Amino acid sequence: MESNAVLLESKSSPLHLLNEMHQQRLLGHLCDVTVSVEYQGVRAEFVAHKAVLAATSKFFKEVFLNEKGVDGPRTQVLLNEVQVADFASFLEFVYTARVEVEEDRVQRMLEIAEKLKCLDLSETCFQLKRQMLESVLLELQNFSESQSSEEESSARAGASLDSKAGAVAKAEQADCPLGPPTSPGDSPGHGAAPELPAAKPKEK
User: Which residues form the signal peptide (predicted)?
Assistant: First the structure.
């Protein structure tokens, strides 16, 4: 009787593999390719593993598969118009699947990803740029809403002041007679009380 097949799968193995390859590269162990990077007179060399570069970059895969022969213990690859810092970040990404860069370098990382045909890095840069754009749009929207609410509140405050001024004016008009104001000498005690036509017949 045959037993059922079971799946043995390690969730941590890919991460361990990447970490080990990264450590081997940093120590220069088992590296079989040297990449020379030059940009505006600044030049640097990086050692790496063909298998890792070929697995993550179609550019390097084409280079390694089309090479006729090896001129020495390591294959030499020259990259022009690529900044040293950007290629160092590229190498860190392909060996660790993560890298920290400044916001203003994201576009450059996208350009090097397209130049070296690294799909994973391209997608990561696109996602990050979209998040940054959404964040900026959200900030602009919040700013616009706050400005609108401030304008509305100031308009309401102005309308409230206008209504209060109107109410005060109406109250003043209701309390004050239409004629000229009376002086203290015109008070009833001085015999100059205003005439009351309606009251005269009752007094008679």
Answer: none
Reported pTM: 0.65
Sheet holding 42-48: strands in order across? 42-48, 33-39, 75-80
C-alpha dist (Å) from residue 19 to 98, 136, 149, 166, 179: 11, 35, 52, 77, 98
Distance CA 82, CA 116 (A): 10
Over residues 14-43, the pLDDT tens digits come to 899 999 999 999 999 999 999 999 999 999
Q: Which of 39, 113, 43, 36 is nearest to 76 (CA)?
A: 36
Give the integer Cα–Cα distance in Å for 199 and 204.
Answer: 9
Give all domains of the chain, ordered by start, each with its CATH number.
14-64+74-131 (3.30.710.10)
Q: Which residue has the tokens 């090896």?
A: 70
79 and 104 Cβ atoms separated by less than 8 Å: no
Cβ count near 90 (within 10 Å): 26
Give Cα separations from 137 to 39, 43, 67, 107, 131 (angstroms).
Answer: 35, 39, 48, 18, 10
CA distance 22 to 1: 46
Output the six-digit token pair for 78: 């020259």
Separation between Cα atoms, residue 85 and residue 37, nearest integer Å: 10
